[in-house]
From TrEMBL:
<dbReference type="InterPro" id="IPR001650">
    <property type="entry name" value="Helicase_C-like"/>
</dbReference>
<protein>
    <submittedName>
        <fullName>Helicase domain protein</fullName>
    </submittedName>
</protein>
<dbReference type="InterPro" id="IPR057342">
    <property type="entry name" value="DEXDc_RapA"/>
</dbReference>
<keyword id="KW-0067">ATP-binding</keyword>
<keyword id="KW-0175">Coiled coil</keyword>
<dbReference type="InterPro" id="IPR014001">
    <property type="entry name" value="Helicase_ATP-bd"/>
</dbReference>
<dbReference type="InterPro" id="IPR049730">
    <property type="entry name" value="SNF2/RAD54-like_C"/>
</dbReference>
<dbReference type="Pfam" id="PF00271">
    <property type="entry name" value="Helicase_C"/>
</dbReference>
<dbReference type="GO" id="GO:0005524">
    <property type="term" value="F:ATP binding"/>
</dbReference>
<dbReference type="GO" id="GO:0004386">
    <property type="term" value="F:helicase activity"/>
</dbReference>
<feature type="coiled-coil region">
    <location>
        <begin position="814"/>
        <end position="900"/>
    </location>
</feature>
<keyword id="KW-0347">Helicase</keyword>
<dbReference type="GO" id="GO:0016787">
    <property type="term" value="F:hydrolase activity"/>
</dbReference>
<dbReference type="InterPro" id="IPR038718">
    <property type="entry name" value="SNF2-like_sf"/>
</dbReference>
<keyword id="KW-0547">Nucleotide-binding</keyword>
<keyword id="KW-0378">Hydrolase</keyword>
<dbReference type="Pfam" id="PF00176">
    <property type="entry name" value="SNF2-rel_dom"/>
</dbReference>
Amino acid sequence: MTTYYHAKYLAHSLSLQSTTDSLGKLTHSMANARVDLNPHQVDAALFALRSPLSKGVIMADEVGLGKTIEAGLVLSQRWAERKRKILLILPATLRKQWQMELEEKFFLPTLILESASYNCLRKEGITKPFERQDAIIICSFHFAAARAEELRQVSWDLVIIDEAHRLRNVYKTSNKMAQSIKTAVSHAPKLLLTATPLQNSLLELYGLVSVIDDHVFGDVKTYRDQFIHESDEEQRNHKLRERLKALCTRTLRKQVLEYVRYTKRIPITQEFLPSDAEQRLYEEVSDYLQRQILLALPAGQRSLMTLVLRKLLASSTFAIAGALRKLINRLEDMEADAVMPDMSEDFEGLDELADEWNGDAEPQERMDPSQIRQELAILRSYAKLAESIQHNAKGEALLVALEQALDQATTLGAANKAVIFTESRRTQQYLLEILSANGYDGQIVLFNGSNSDPHSKRIFKEWLQRHQGQDIITGSPTADMRAALIEEFRERGTILIATESAAEGVNLQFCSLVVNYDLPWNPQRIEQRIGRCHRYGQKYDVVVVNFLNKRNAADQRVYQLLAEKFRLFDGVFGASDEVLGALESGVDLEKRIAQVYQECRTQEEITLAFDALQAELEGNISHRLVETRQALLDNFDEDVHMRLKMHQDNTTLKLSEHEEKLLALARLELVGQADFLPEAPRFYYYGPDAPKGLYHLNWKEAEKYGDTFFRPEHPLARKIIEGAAQRELSLAHLELNYSDYGAIISSVQSLRGQSGWLQVTKLTVETLEKEEFLILSGCNEQGDAIDEETCQKLLKLSASVRKKEVQQTSPNQLESLKQKLIKERLNLVEARNAQFFDEEVAKLDRWSDDLKYGLEREIKELDKELKELRRKATVAVSLAEKLAAQKELKIQEKKRTQKRRQLYDAQDEIDERRDELIAGIERLMLQKQKVEVLFTISWTIL
């Protein structure tokens, strides 16, 4: 491809907005993603994008199948279409993970909005922080509910809700948060992500579907009658599945084993016995935290801060010593409005915890000076004891466990690497010192929220020097520091000691040893940690090390709950969908466990409390509902395997074609600015419009060699695509060289020695969505038509522009052929949109039938009451009883007559609402079209 005509054709091919139901719709976003795509993820993304009339879908793949990637594809597609008012609502603990995934894998800009960043933007004069199109907004459930009115005022192009099962009880009037969020985003198209759309009741499906679209089912009572009280279970499931099939997609892990290789988790439990001094410190601080009055902790934060102090107490004596000193300082400087000292440096997960715990409603105790002095004396004694303990039994146990676990990982063939998680920065420093003194000096990388230590700064400086001028440097100090530390661990380190920061959005699949030095009580946090290593791309079984305090009954029961009930540490997939779904939120379980620690003083009390908690959890897992979920949502159709296989093959083909076109365009447009390597889709760029260096069109190879990943949305690629697409080209004659092609193209070979015409036209159709088509119309000199596929192949031949006088008008046959091809495309668009229209009308018909059914049910209930009253009037003995019965009967008959009139009026109203909705759809479907001739050439094939 050697002319500007080829370049213009390629540029438009690369930037077309394709039809909604084809793989071409996703090609642009797939080509921009730095991720290995599995066919089920492509399938789910296509499902979500299928109908432009849809209000949204539920993506309900089982745990571990990459719902984030599926959503990322849809996000990326909407972003490419310039639909950029996008909101993500998710648990606070997942905000940073989503941010890193979208920025690193899809190159999408994001902004986390929480109280601090929101207020900062307001102070800067940005009055509507949610209403922006330069970044995808990420916020937590609680923040979204608190700002519901602001969300409602934004015309969102897409809203994604992760862990959406938290909204499944939205139909209950008591669920204020879910109702606030539903109302706030009711006008927006939505993606709901959850592995557990159905956990305890069929009403949960009603709730989740109503979040997407209120016009799928009628009211709750009607839903109960039709789908819960229905005695024929098979018929009920069939009817319900029909309603859900356009709204819910679910892939099972067993369906993708052909494409996804899963490794196992192998648990190692390292027991330890605290010293007498450590045990005394634990018991005394624990007793202190159970006091009725605590002046050192603000009443509004007591439960949260008690949890944090207990976690620091279990972490290390160094962690609790620092926290105790902060409490002492607070009491020493205490005034009536004293605030809690900042503990976020001591306990890195504090911000996320605070977001979900929402404070307490306990009244503040009055400050008695004598009580302050007494509490100060106690805290000082605890701090002195903590600071006197320089050796921790758990730290010594780590040395033993680490050696054993690294040997295990090496036996499995994995790299000699371990990531150690702690919740405290002081514990992190202690672990650095003890490991450095015991054979690991110079092999350790620290990773936390600030990364401000001298060692991390040195690593960052060296990283910047190594990658100077490369695309890997983003310019964001936080993101670049994280990348530098992870590269150091991957390439040169043995141990990464990480706080909760590394559990969020960091991929460590090159490491297969996870050490939970401190164990969170929230199963979702643990799953998130282990998931940094035990994820797609991990080649080896992952060893998981946990520590067990043999002198603490509550710690032992927590571990038993997490290991045996949640099965977090062994098996192939970690926690099951059923168990995680039963939680609603891991924070709920965390609060319950904290309550046990706070209220139970004896081993017997601890045993009874954990028995009750475990029984309650078991009761939340309805095996009957699991079977129902399988019948309703799990797709066992025979075509699933074939469809996934087709997606796998077609995705590879489409990406290959896309890469070829982008490379061919780059060769044409970067003449004199780049040297192209013959053996790979790789070039060295030395032009003025981008950093000099090596560029690679394959993201894996780019990562391997440290090249810049050259993708359609890279600024240099965008520049050459836009430049070639906008270049004005006049009519010209091209000599096409078939003999240079190097392969046989039968349809072109038969045209050798002939001449003819070719025109490339862009057809833009705007109905429900904007769609673009390239129309290739061609004919030979005799006016005989050449099919579009042959025209495409003509444009694969190398060519030269022949300097001779060219007939200035193309033959009439070319125009006729173009109009015929345009009509065919428009017919296809109309047929497909008619199908979408029919689906929406059918949905609205079912919805209106449901509402009418509900009204008719009320009439039937009144008829039953009337029948009973007539029976009573008949059997009445005395005249007074008969008169009273007739009087009551008359009242009820009048009530029924009124109800029947109301029924007719309501049915008319429902029909009017249905007609209004359909009229709205019809207005959306009004077709606009634009025809633009990109270029016309005459040709001769040599």
